[in-house]
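@here heads up, posting the sequence + SMILES for the zinc ion run so it's all in one place. Ping me if the SMILES looks off, I pulled it from an old spreadsheet.
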Amino acid sequence: MPELPEVETIIRDLKPSVIGQEIKSLKIFDGSNRLFLKNNLSFFHKYLIGQTIRDINRHGKYIIFCLSSLSNFVVHLRMTGSFTILHTNAPVVPYEKLRINFCTNLSMSLIDIRKFATIDISNDANFLVSKLGPDAISRGFNAKFLQSKFIKRNSSVKSALLDQKIAAGVGNIYADEACWAANINPLSRASLLNLDQIELLCKSIKLVLRESISNRGTTINNYKDVLGNSGYHQTRVAVYGRLDKPCFKCKTKISKIKVVGRATYFCPKCQKN
Ligand SMILES: [Zn+2]
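bot reply: prediction finished. Complex structure tokens:
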């Protein structure tokens, strides 16, 4: 699943081709109905046709296309969604779900193998603020905020970090990487972490996310950038996917367990509690 660094990379790739473009038409392809949530194609026609894309922002894993009408076109790529830029006359791409044709000869295409991606319109620029916690690389995501959330959580640290109301944009890979960097066991109870641990965890989350952005994201299965290339942070991960490989700090073999149904990697020596 694209997490914060992968979504950020996609946005940075899209910006030069998409900002300033006026939307001329939309085309949907077979199996696209799930994209629309509760709406339909005519709803999106109404809000998108004739609009110019002014900017592209992100909150957690949500992509927010800011339109000239001041409405927002909001996309969540979920498991396997990705974007590419095509010539308007280019043939249909495998797994293409939606093509947004601009008034130039360019189109922006949403591709999705597993069909979980969603699109929506919001007229409220702050609508995600009530739905999600602060974006994990924003100033609002700090130790004080994290402590205020963790103090009420009886669940594990890993489970708390996957909650988008706590750490918007953090997913399975970066939760494990940050716990390792902060020497925190992913199974530790969130409410029992002290302030020093929370401060270190918060710094570690931002650090692993920023490092991954600079490496254009992590490709474990399907993630591709706008040009169809893999990221290369998977060659730099410390624990994720490194079962039985030596810990970079202590040489102990990395363990794998399941936490809230998700594969979780950690060093049993460095991450005792
Ligand atoms: Zn270790």
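MO: The helical segments are 4-18, 41-48, 127-131, 143-150, 157-162, 172-181, 195-214.
MO: One more: The CA atoms of residues 147 and 194 lie 9 Å apart.
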